[in-house]
Amino acid sequence: MLHIVLTRIDDRLIHGQVITAWTKITKADRIIVVDDEVAEDSFMVKVLKMAAPSSIKVDIFNTEDAAVTLAGEDTGERVIILVKTPKTVLDLIKAGVNIADLNLGGMGATQGRKQLYRNISISAEEKAIFKELLTLGVDVFVQIVPDANKMPMATMI
């Protein structure tokens, strides 16, 4: 299995905060974006790859291909997994990917979602998925930036 240093839900995926703060603190040298729609959008794939410095390898996979890649032989790379929703994380776990910790960094307000904390809004379905992840033993926490305190999701839902 690849060495996962951070799994983060952030609907912006790759952006300045991820690149400057999270890659530095985790010493990551690879980012794997997992999103079925984005993986099929060649324009978005190009944009996301251009958003990262050349020193960081970026791959964008659908959930199925990501699960296969993540379960592969450890290459020595330090990998950040970025997803937009908790369902993707649950699907990866059900496909055999070992995700012990989950950082909730940003889920914007949309129809059907209620604000949980600052820039994090979740729907009833997403709340149920978070509860399932907690039941599976995943340490789910809110931490917008690395120097902020971790807030356990269990106390928020």
Automatic annotation (TrEMBL):
InterPro entries: PTS_IIB_sorbose-sp (IPR004720), PTS_IIB_sorbose-sp_sf (IPR036667). One of its GO terms (cellular component) is cytoplasm. Residues 1-157 form the PTS EIIB type-4 domain. Keywords: Cytoplasm, Kinase, Phosphotransferase system, Sugar transport, Transferase, Transport. One of its GO terms (molecular function) is protein-N(PI)-phosphohistidine-sugar phosphotransferase activity. PROSITE patterns: PTS_EIIB_TYPE_4 (PS51101). It is found in: Cytoplasm. GO terms for biological process: phosphoenolpyruvate-dependent sugar phosphotransferase system. This is PTS system sorbose subfamily IIB component. It comes from Pelosinus fermentans B4.
